[in-house]
Specification:
Blueprint (H helix, E strand, L loop, with lengths): L2 H13 L15 H11 L11 E6 L2 H17 L7 H13 L2 E8 L8 H21 L2 E6 L7 H7 L5 E11 L22
Helix pairs in contact: 2-5, 3-4
């Protein structure tokens, strides 16, 4: 592999950030760009080739419907002393501020040939592929996993099938933010070398 390609890959990885809906512009992501991003998910590692990743692309009027569903679930399930009107309104508006949302779903291998955590890990790696691609294309993204993803209302909205679980939502939109510096502790603090 050429040095310039490796440098470009490393640079994209290091520059990927969570970009939240409040920073999105009104520019809509084209279907072609979404498909380009989604296609990279299909190349994630997958034990026994179970390919557990499934995605539901939400756009247009469905964003408002989903926002209302998530906000209603929050209002109905938050205790009186914990309920926040600000959070309620923000929950309803986040999807509306997004160009698209992608429901991140996992289809469990019917034969359960691999542990469930490996299926979850595969889906997460598929999302990382998408996120890096989106970042390289100037599309911001943010993975959120609200408690409401486990609700019957959410399952019905997403038309989840047998053995299919929602792991969260990838909010997506174009943005004009400057490059955001990384906040990470040194990698040397997280490595232990074992040689004998």
């Amino acid at each position: 592999m050429e040095t310039s390609t490796i440098t470009s890959i490393i640079d994209t990885i290091k520059k990927r950030r969570s970009v939240f809906p409040a920073s999105y512009t009104n520019q809509v992501i084209s279907k072609e760009t979404l498909l380009e991003i989604l296609e990279t998910a299909n190349y994630a590692p997958t034990h026994r080739l179970t390919e557990p990743w499934r995605f539901k692309v939400i756009g247009g009027e469905a964003l408002g419907k989903l926002g209302d569903l998530l906000a209603t679930w929050y209002k109905e399930n938050a205790s009186a002393d914990k309920f926040s009107e600000v959070k309620y309104k923000k929950t309803a508006q986040k999807p509306r501020k997004s160009s698209h949302m992608i429901a991140i779903c996992m289809q469990r291998d019917p034969q359960e040939r691999v542990p469930e955590w490996e299926e979850v890990a595969s889906v997460a790696m598929a999302v990382q592929n998408m996120w890096l691609t989106a970042s390289a294309l100037g599309v911001g993204a943010y993975w959120s996993s609200p408690k409401s993803i486990h609700s019957e209302a959410c399952a019905k909205f997403l038309n989840l099938g047998e053995g299919e679980t929602c792991l969260g939502f990838l909010y997506m939109g174009y943005h004009e933010l400057p490059e955001i510096p990384a906040r990470r502790n040194p990698m040397a603090e997280k490595i232990e070398w074992i040689s004998s």
